[in-house]
Specification:
The chain is α/β, with parallel strands linked by helices and 242 residues long. The protein has one domain: Purple Acid Phosphatase, chain A, domain 2, CATH 3.60.21. Helix content is 23%, strand content 25%. The chain has 6 helices and 14 strands. The strands form 2 sheets. An 8-stranded mixed beta sheet has the order 4-5-6-3-2-1-13-14. Strand 1, helix 1 and strand 2 form a beta-alpha-beta unit. Helix 1 packs parallel to helix 2 and helix 5 crosses helix 6. Bound molecules: fe (ii) ion (FE2). Fe (ii) ion binds next to loops.
Length: 242
């Protein structure tokens, strides 16, 4: 089974709460997956202080997968070895914790997933470069090209899309109607907007906006506290308590 949730901004305490509010987790195996739609945050300090969070997830009996958000320490994240897994590239953090890299198409549970993390930090002016903010948060030219190449190989058709940000037009129209959002220029949102109109997919899941919203007309599920089970009807499996 595959579960998907929004930003965890991981630290040991919030991770503990996450699991407390995820009762299904107790019955899962290594054939099950929990996907976090960015701002994983479990690799933040780049030193021993990350260990408690990673060890906590490592003890779980299922796979923890995440795309990167904007709040990640990209210098530390990019130091992990790159491996091929299920058709795409991952940073292997632990045996059961993988970072799904940008622009990849993975086959998970016989379904195709396109992944593209990243986004813009609206508070970056208040953050310190390479300490609490990293310019790699935004999509690069190389990542965009790799994504387009990989999508072409799959004839621009996947089952699911997992991103941190959402396509720009959806942010500025549908999401802004639900929630007051600051309109910022985001290269990642612009790129996602481009592929949104050319890609065949069943459902798109993203995080980033710290809201839970289902936009049926766009086949878009924006996640924050909700944990959805990827099953017919997309039932909400649980609601995180932080
Ligand atoms: Fe976030």
């Amino acid at each position: 089974m595959i579960y998907i949730t929004g930003d965890t901004h991981g630290n040991h305490d919030t991770s503990k709460l996450f699991l407390k509010s995820f009762p299904d987790g107790k019955s899962l195996s290594m054939d099950d997956y929990v996907i976090i739609t960015g701002d994983f945050g479990g690799i933040w300090y780049g030193d021993k202080r990350d260990d408690a969070t990673l060890e906590f997830y490592e003890e779980k009996k299922y796979m923890v997968l995440f795309v990167d958000g904007n709040h990640e320490n990209f210098d530390a994240l990019n130091k992990y070895p790159i491996s091929e897994w299920n058709g795409g590239k991952v940073h292997k953090i632990r045996d059961n914790i993988f970072h799904l890299m940008r622009g990849q198409v993975f086959e998970i549970d016989s379904k195709k997933f396109f992944t593209f993390g990243g986004g813009v930090s609206i508070d970056k002016a208040m953050r310190m470069p390479y300490v609490s903010w990293w310019p790699q948060e935004e999509a690069s030219y190389e990542e965009i090209n790799e994504a387009l190449d990989n999508l072409e190989k799959h004839k621009n058709k996947v089952d699911y899309v997992i991103t941190h940000a959402a396509p720009e037009s959806i942010v500025r129209n549908e999401l802004c109607q639900i929630h007051t959002l600051m309109k910022v220029d985001c290269a990642t949102e612009k790129f996602l907007n481009e592929i949104y109109h050319n890609l065949e997919f069943k459902m798109w899941f993203c995080g980033h906006y710290h809201m839970d919203a289902w936009i049926k007309s766009c086949k878009m599920q924006v996640l924050y506290h909700q944990i959805v089970k990827l099953a017919p009807g997309y039932p909400i499996a649980s609601r995180r308590i932080f």
